[in-house]
Amino acid sequence: MHTEIQDGLLQRHMPGLDVLRGVAIFSVLMYHGFYWSASYQTFAYGYERKFVYLTVFGWLGVNLFFVLSGFLITGILMDARENAVYFRPFYLRRVARIIPAYLLCLVILFVMGGLLGSELAICLLYLTNFFPVHYGVLWSLSVEEQFYAVWPSVVRLLSEKTLFIVCLALIPLCPLLRWFSFAHGNLLGDVHSSTPLIADHFAGGACLAYALRGKIRRARQGAILARWIVVIGIAILACGYPFGILHRYTSVGAALQTTPFLFIFCGMLLIALLPSVATWMGRRVALQFFGYISYGLYLYHMLFFHLYDWLASKGRLPAVNGRFHILVFRFALSVTLASGFSWLSRRYFEEHFLRIRSKATILTAEHS
């Protein structure tokens, strides 16, 4: 069931996905810049407390990234599965895209004393989701790399129909595994960072990659499917709310907290690919910009929050100390500087390795 990338809802360039990346990274920035940095209980005024409290949902931006990865990576692999050279081009692309900025971030952290020697080894082995380090955002990079290590072989070995069945089965299986792990003292790892326990997010995206290369090709079909997927997500959220689905310290929350949002994110992804929506999203330049620098911005943004706090401790910048307007100033300044650094990294550092990757991929194709 091979398909050209231009077929149906799939296009060579999909601006809607850039916008979703922008939404995902901005959600994470809001979470780390507000809720993660200052308890909402610090603020006396109602609107300040409510605003900071609502940014707690920004952590779900990482889960949106996982859904996007499952969709894009599975699609790339499905389209390449008949090629004589299958693994090498994929891993060349991943290494060129992921490793340079990641190593640069690790070097900065190590020089600044943000990582110990043992932590650096854990980071280089991509095990931070099992062995947390001080720079906490790196856990999701480990999850992504573990996914990349396994998934190409799975896609190559299984028939497309079997692959779809496996992905579909993971969506209810992972919540069951999360419940089991939570009930037995995190026996299988943390329910929100252990790769086998959160594989349903990648699987959800993979199911869409399969569907859009099969029977779901027209905009009307995509819109109907998106509507039903979102309805399912909202229904799960509504049914689980009285049982603590939004709280990690309950068994229901441990198992199902992210499941409604998995469905909602899959629906959002489908909606973003609809021609009329894609045209509208193509005009959202700011979010596309954040999508363009999203990887580097995810890696570097906490460095700038930490830098602000260090300068504030030296009296060179105003400390937050429960003042909401200073928290907003801290967020705006740190994100602006992090965005500028991430753009420079992408434009003048990461792109260099991406060009090398393209040349290597062409040479590989010519000699296959």
Q: Would you mind describing this structure in some detail?
A:
The chain has 368 residues and is mostly helical. It has helices at residues 15-35, 46-54, 61-80, 87-112, 117-124, 139-157, 160-183, 199-211, 219-240, 251-256, 259-273, 275-281, 285-292, 294-313, 324-366. It is built from 15 helices and no strands. Helix 1 packs antiparallel against helix 15.
Number of helices: 15
Give the distance, in angstroms, between the N- and C-terminal Cα atoms: 22 Å
> Can you tell me the residue ranges where pLDDT is under 50 for at least 5 consecutive residues?
1-6
Number of strands: 0
Query: Average pLDDT value?
Result: 92
Mind summarizing the main beta sheet? none
Helix fraction by DSSP (H/I, runs of at least 4): over 70%
Q: What sort of overall outline do the alpha carbons produce when their principal axes are compared?
A: globular
Structural class of the helices, strands and pairings?
mainly alpha
**Radius of gyration (Å):** 21 Å
What portion of the residues fall into strands of 2 or more residues?
Answer: under 5%
Order of helices and strands: HHHHHHHHHHHHHHH
